[in-house]
Amino acid sequence: MDTKPKLRCIIIVACQSAPVAANVDLRPDDLILCADGGYARAKAENIRPHAIIGDFDSLDGRIGESVEKDIQVVRLEKEKDFTDTLECVKYGIARGCGDFVIVGGLGGRFDHTFANIQTLSFLADMGCGARIADGKNRAVMVTGAIRLDPSPGGRFSVYSYEERSVGVNISGAKYPLTDAVLTQSFPIGVSNEFLGETPVTVSVKRGRLLIILSED
User: How far apart are alpha carbons 79 and 94 in whole angstroms?
Assistant: First the structure.
């Protein structure tokens, strides 16, 4: 059994509701990518990415003049089938990453937010660990089980990301579930609460869950 830790990819996007440093603790071995305007965010915090990927519609078109040496710039066509963030994901997968953190991307345009949620589902399809961290909100896609650690003023919501998710269990929370069925059209799992410092366990036997953690 391979117990080697998965290489982690950090993707910094343009829309941020908090400093990057408040969303993720960067490690020396992280592969750091900026999706288009995410480079401006990284540069403001003295974060040096390995590559900047995008069509640069949210950055100055003269991006090449402001990028530090040895940072790769991958320029994409404006008319394309993939978002800049998904192109970053593909770049990270090609370089052996198996764990992804998308930093930002939940508090801006709703269409971009939803695209980022779909990117989490794509990463689940690829067998990668993934989450979105953006200030007071985090999101993760689950196909098995996950443990959620409480945070001050925190709540969490559990949604089915497929037509039906079967065998859903929530334990350690104010509103537990046992062997429940969640559907896409009924948000019964919204706004659950932690009980003090007790971690919560969420699991699903068949299907896919979107979990969103929010702080007041």
Answer: 22
* pTM higher than the cut 0.85: yes
User: Residue ranges per domain, the chain?
Assistant: 7-135, 145-215
Q: Are 120 and 8 in contact (CB under 8 A)?
A: no
Locate 124 and state its tokens. Answer: 């689940």
pLDDT digits (tens, 9 = 90+) for 55-109: 876 655 555 556 677 888 888 877 777 889 999 999 999 999 999 999 998 987 8
Distance of alpha carbon 90 from alpha carbon 152, whole angstroms: 35
Tens of pLDDT, residues 170-213 = 999 999 999 999 999 999 999 999 998 889 999 999 999 999 99
Q: Quote helix, strand, coil % in the chain, to nearest 5.
A: 20, 35, 45
Separation of alpha carbons 191 and 180, rounded Å: 17
- The rounded distance, in Å, linking the Cα atoms of 197 and 40 is 37
- Find the helix packing angle between 110-125 and 84-94, rounded to 10°: 20
Same fold, 7-135 and 145-215: no
User: How would CATH label the architecture of 7-135?
Assistant: 3-Layer(aba) Sandwich (3.40)
* Arithmetic mean of pLDDT, 4-28: 90
CATH class, domain 145-215, is mainly beta
How far, in Å, CA of 90 to CA of 8, rounded? 13
